[in-house]
Amino acid sequence: MTQEGKLLLVRKTDGLSNSYRIRHILVDMETIYRLRDIISHMSNLKEEYYLEFLNTRSLDAGIIRLGEGQLDNQSTHSLDEIYYVIEGEGLISINGKDHQISNGSFVFVPANTRHRFHGNKGELIVLYIFAKG
Predict the structure, then answer these.
(1) 72 part of a folded domain
(2) What pTM was computed for the model?
(3) In total, how many domains does the chain have?
(4) pLDDT (tens digit, 9 = 90+) per residue, 51-88?
């Protein structure tokens, strides 16, 4: 059993080798998450700009937090993804085409589509959700 509010580091094998990948997963399987608590935990992660706070059999959810001009170096994903811009404004490039985003923008990115955030003016905070098949 985990303690509420603790950051968990979960190691998972990739199934092909003995290497491990570390995923940041927040708290336990509570149903209520508070953005300020997630952002607070993210402040302790020196090298990461995202935090996955929910990982179930059917979906993953997390927060992306980019500072002004910070690089988003994500690669394509094998699942459809939805982004919701909580705070900030900037651009998202989808297959090389730029789209303006700001507070309240929803963005759907199909599986295996090149995309990244950039050109953010100040801090950009985005919720992401992957639905698993």
Answers:
(1) yes
(2) 0.74
(3) 1
(4) 888 888 888 999 999 999 898 998 898 999 999 999 99
